[in-house]
Design a protein that fits this description.
The chain is of the alpha+beta class. The protein contains 3 helices and 4 strands, in the order αβββαβα. The protein has a single domain (5-113), classed as Nucleotidyltransferase, domain 5.
Protein backbone atom coordinates (compact mmCIF):
# COMPACT_ATOMS: atom_id res chain seq x y z
CA UNK A 1 0.00 0.00 0.00
CA UNK A 2 1.35 3.41 -0.95
CA UNK A 3 1.94 5.85 1.89
CA UNK A 4 0.12 9.17 1.89
CA UNK A 5 2.03 12.42 1.70
CA UNK A 6 1.32 13.10 5.38
CA UNK A 7 2.60 9.63 6.34
CA UNK A 8 5.75 10.11 4.26
CA UNK A 9 6.40 13.45 5.96
CA UNK A 10 5.86 11.89 9.38
CA UNK A 11 8.33 9.11 8.61
CA UNK A 12 10.96 11.57 7.34
CA UNK A 13 10.47 13.71 10.44
CA UNK A 14 10.90 10.69 12.74
CA UNK A 15 14.06 9.71 10.87
CA UNK A 16 15.51 13.22 11.19
CA UNK A 17 14.55 13.50 14.88
CA UNK A 18 16.39 10.28 15.74
CA UNK A 19 19.63 12.05 14.88
CA UNK A 20 18.91 15.74 15.54
CA UNK A 21 18.86 16.68 19.22
CA UNK A 22 18.97 20.19 20.62
CA UNK A 23 21.05 21.01 23.68
CA UNK A 24 21.73 24.13 25.73
CA UNK A 25 24.87 24.82 23.68
CA UNK A 26 23.25 24.07 20.29
CA UNK A 27 19.46 24.18 20.45
CA UNK A 28 17.30 22.80 17.65
CA UNK A 29 15.81 25.16 15.05
CA UNK A 30 12.54 23.40 14.25
CA UNK A 31 10.45 24.37 11.22
CA UNK A 32 6.77 23.73 10.67
CA UNK A 33 5.35 24.55 7.25
CA UNK A 34 1.62 24.59 6.62
CA UNK A 35 -0.11 25.56 3.38
CA UNK A 36 -0.65 29.14 4.52
CA UNK A 37 2.11 29.88 7.06
CA UNK A 38 5.56 28.89 8.26
CA UNK A 39 6.68 28.69 11.89
CA UNK A 40 10.15 28.43 13.44
CA UNK A 41 11.15 27.62 17.01
CA UNK A 42 14.51 27.33 18.74
CA UNK A 43 14.13 24.48 21.23
CA UNK A 44 16.34 23.16 24.04
CA UNK A 45 15.47 19.45 24.06
CA UNK A 46 17.24 18.75 27.38
CA UNK A 47 14.97 21.21 29.21
CA UNK A 48 11.99 20.69 26.86
CA UNK A 49 11.63 24.45 26.43
CA UNK A 50 11.10 26.74 23.49
CA UNK A 51 13.69 29.51 23.74
CA UNK A 52 12.71 31.67 20.74
CA UNK A 53 9.94 31.54 18.17
CA UNK A 54 8.83 33.38 15.03
CA UNK A 55 6.19 32.88 12.37
CA UNK A 56 4.46 34.58 9.48
CA UNK A 57 1.67 35.47 11.91
CA UNK A 58 3.94 37.74 14.00
CA UNK A 59 3.07 41.43 13.96
CA UNK A 60 6.76 42.28 13.44
CA UNK A 61 6.83 40.25 10.22
CA UNK A 62 4.19 42.59 8.69
CA UNK A 63 3.29 40.23 5.83
CA UNK A 64 0.31 40.17 3.49
CA UNK A 65 0.64 36.42 2.87
CA UNK A 66 2.56 33.72 4.69
CA UNK A 67 2.83 31.19 1.89
CA UNK A 68 5.71 32.62 -0.15
CA UNK A 69 9.47 32.16 -0.08
CA UNK A 70 9.84 35.88 0.70
CA UNK A 71 7.64 35.44 3.79
CA UNK A 72 9.75 32.44 4.86
CA UNK A 73 12.92 34.50 4.42
CA UNK A 74 11.43 37.21 6.64
CA UNK A 75 10.72 34.61 9.34
CA UNK A 76 14.28 33.28 8.98
CA UNK A 77 15.71 36.74 9.52
CA UNK A 78 13.38 37.33 12.47
CA UNK A 79 14.28 34.03 14.19
CA UNK A 80 18.00 34.75 13.74
CA UNK A 81 17.69 38.25 15.21
CA UNK A 82 15.73 36.96 18.21
CA UNK A 83 18.16 34.08 18.73
CA UNK A 84 21.21 36.33 18.62
CA UNK A 85 19.50 38.71 21.08
CA UNK A 86 19.19 35.73 23.46
CA UNK A 87 22.88 34.75 23.03
CA UNK A 88 22.10 31.79 20.76
CA UNK A 89 24.46 31.77 17.78
CA UNK A 90 24.66 28.06 16.90
CA UNK A 91 21.74 25.73 16.27
CA UNK A 92 21.02 22.37 14.66
CA UNK A 93 18.48 22.51 11.84
CA UNK A 94 15.33 20.37 11.97
CA UNK A 95 13.42 20.66 8.70
CA UNK A 96 10.40 18.92 10.19
CA UNK A 97 10.27 16.11 7.64
CA UNK A 98 9.84 18.57 4.79
CA UNK A 99 12.20 18.57 1.84
CA UNK A 100 14.99 21.16 1.92
CA UNK A 101 13.50 23.15 -0.91
CA UNK A 102 11.41 26.25 -1.48
CA UNK A 103 10.14 27.93 1.68
CA UNK A 104 12.16 25.70 4.04
CA UNK A 105 15.40 26.48 2.19
CA UNK A 106 14.52 30.19 2.01
CA UNK A 107 14.02 30.34 5.78
CA UNK A 108 17.29 28.49 6.45
CA UNK A 109 19.30 30.65 4.04
CA UNK A 110 17.90 33.88 5.51
CA UNK A 111 18.69 32.72 9.05
CA UNK A 112 22.27 31.93 8.00
CA UNK A 113 22.67 35.32 6.33
CA UNK A 114 21.40 37.04 9.48
CA UNK A 115 24.18 35.41 11.53
CA UNK A 116 22.85 32.07 12.79
CA UNK A 117 25.31 29.18 12.38
CA UNK A 118 24.20 25.67 11.43
Amino acid sequence: MKATRRESTRRRHARVRRRVKGSAERPRLAIFRSNQHIYAQVIDDTEHKTLVSASTLDKEADLKTGSTAEAAATVGKLIAERSLANDISQVVFDRGGKLYHGRVAALADAAREAGLKF
